[in-house]
Write a structure and sequence with these properties.
Length: 131
């Protein structure tokens, strides 16, 4: 059994920060569950172009308000508490936060721990491991 507390993530080196966001990586590849689980904050006014070429991501909005744009179709979807979106086709997208957002995120394959977005807006398959 694995038990962790969000309030202890930064003390355990599980909080990763980059421009526009902060991710608390509560479950990672080294845990052996087959997916990773994160609580992520998207800062107010952040505009984040992303394209997860190596991962499928599922995102559930806990708090805040924003939108996601599907770059391929131009469709824009409102993100608010209770909304889930799944990037099941490695969808190139732009996430905008009109106010700070708190999101629960699941990645498959699981992240290793220290990933940040590369120039294409993706996470690499290999990164520094958090144990």
């Amino acid at each position: 059994m694995i038990v962790r507390k969000l309030s202890e993530a930064s003390l355990q080196g599980r909080t990763i920060k980059a421009e526009g966001w902060e991710s608390n990586r509560l479950l990672l590849k080294s845990d052996g569950a087959g997916f990773s689980f994160h609580i992520t904050r998207i800062f107010k006014d952040a505009v984040l172009p992303m394209h997860y070429q190596n991962h499928i991501e599922s995102v559930y909005c806990i708090r805040g308000f924003g939108e996601i744009k599907d770059v391929a179709t131009g469709a824009i979807h409102t993100i608010e508490p209770g909304t889930i979106y799944i990037l099941d086709k490695h969808d190139k997208h732009i996430l905008r936060a009109f106010e700070e957002m708190e999101l629960a995120c699941v990645f498959n394959p699981p992240l290793m721990g220290r990933e940040v977005h590369n120039a294409e807006g993706a996470y690499a398959l290999a990164a520094e491991v958090i144990v």
